[in-house]
């Protein structure tokens, strides 16, 4: 069973509700797929789900999935899986914190619309690279051979 957890966002403590079962199903799939795609001796480490990560300004985020650089522990990828009623923190507040941190990659997974927004850091901040849906494949340059469709990500579990 998952539990509520606390983040420090924009200098304020923020108690986040325990994620619901559909949210955790998406997290389980993403963690399994990314773990399987990480090459041996990768320069990136997959952190356990919602590991607290302190950012430069003292804020502390707990991404649903995070890849950090093995050499210095800095985040390379953060994945935020949205929950109903909790959208603002992940799409506005944390996105701004990640931007300030110059996070190279951000995925925002939205189960309402069965899509994933892929952001990369460009010269002027985040740039929306793709909005993936249906048969579009989720990939990342740091995960060779990784590619899963949105239909597979959002598939209902077998009864």
Please provide a written account of the structure.
This protein is an alpha+beta fold and 159 residues long. It has one domain (24-153): tt1808, chain A (Alpha-Beta Complex), CATH 3.90.1570.10. The protein is built from three helices and twelve strands. It has helices at 21-37, 87-100, 150-153; strands at 5-9, 12-16, 44-47, 53-54, 60-61, 65-69, 75-81, 105-110, 115-122, 125-133, 137-138, 148-149. A hairpin with a 5-residue loop joins strand 6 (65-69) and strand 7 (75-81). It starts with a strand and ends in a 6-residue tail after the last helix. The mean pLDDT is 93.
- CATH class call: Alpha Beta
Radius of gyration: 15 Å
- The SSE order reads EEHEEEEEHEEEEEH
Gross geometry: globular
In a few lines, what is going on in this structure?
Helices cover 22% and strands 36% of the residues. It is an alpha+beta fold.
Keywords:
two-stranded antiparallel sheet, 6-stranded mixed sheet, 159 residues, alpha+beta, 3 helices
């Amino acid at each position: 069973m998952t539990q509520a957890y606390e983040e420090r966002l924009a200098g304020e403590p923020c108690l986040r509700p325990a994620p619901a079962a559909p949210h955790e199903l998406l997290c389980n799939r993403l963690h399994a797929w990314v773990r399987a795609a990480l090459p041996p001796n990768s320069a990136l480490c997959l952190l356990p789900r919602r590991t607290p990560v302190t950012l430069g300004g003292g804020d502390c985020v707990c991404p649903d999935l995070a890849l950090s650089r093995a050499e210095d522990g800095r985040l390379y990828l953060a994945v935020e899986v949205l929950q109903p009623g909790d959208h603002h923190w992940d799409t506005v507040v944390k996105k701004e914190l990640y931007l300030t941190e110059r996070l190279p990659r951000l995925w925002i997974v939205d189960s309402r619309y069965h899509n994933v927004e892929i952001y990369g850091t460009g010269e002027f901040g985040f740039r929306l690279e793709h909005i993936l849906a249906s048969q579009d494949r989720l990939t990342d340059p740091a995960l060779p051979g990784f590619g899963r469709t949105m239909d597979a990500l959002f598939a209902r579990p077998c009864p």
